[in-house]
Write a structure and sequence with these properties.
Elements lengths: L5 H26 L6 H11 L5 H21 L3 H19 L12 H16 L6 H4 L7 H32 L1
Helix pairs in contact: 1-2, 1-3, 1-5, 2-3, 3-4, 4-5, 4-7
């Protein structure tokens, strides 16, 4: 048995921490855990933020965060997990962008950091201490990286773009 590889151990710590934070954040949206609103509360929030249809948006955000986070923590289907979480965070960045960068003022600092970290893990790979490694990288193929990130980017652009277009008439009313 070889010695512990610091690179792989670092990826494990980064994956587990980021994945746990994302999974908990998504569990708030889906199940109402940790003080969250559950699907009903998240649906109402999505409608107030201009996402349509609001229930589908709530489910997509919750699944992207909870599912992507859980898979990242395990190191399973890492490209898809990183892409899903990054895509969900792109929507959160769009909501917080008008408040500027820093989280203290309600800005997009926190969701941007989570999204970039999830994307970096999805691109880098899970490391040796992962389910992907244990299964021979069945769900971690090079072509999956391109497909997952292209799909997530297209979905995020469509959702954020639809929200932006829907909000323009509201802004013009004032």
């Amino acid at each position: 048995m070889g010695c512990v590889n610091r690179h792989d151990l670092g990826l494990l710590v980064l994956r587990a921490g980021t994945g746990a934070v994302l999974a908990a954040h998504g569990a708030q949206k889906l199940f109402g855990w940790f003080g969250g609103g559950g699907v009903e509360g998240t649906t109402a929030a999505m409608e107030a933020m201009g996402f349509h249809p609001p229930k589908h948006s709530a489910l997509a955000a919750g699944l992207g965060e909870a599912g992507g986070g859980a898979l990242l923590a395990l190191g399973l289907a890492t490209p898809a997990a990183g892409a899903a979480a990054a895509g969900a965070m792109a929507g959160a960045v769009a909501v917080h962008a008008p408040a500027g960068f820093f989280a203290q003022g309600g800005g997009y600092e926190y969701p941007a950091f989570l999204g970039f970290t999830a994307a970096a893990i999805g691109l880098t790979g899970p490391g040796r201490y992962s389910v992907d490694h244990a299964t021979g990288h069945v769900f971690d193929q090079p072509w999956m990286v391109a497909l997952a990130f292209a799909g997530s980017a297209a979905a995020a652009a469509a959702v954020v773009g639809r929200r932006a277009r829907a909000r323009v008439p509201e802004a013009e009313e004032f």
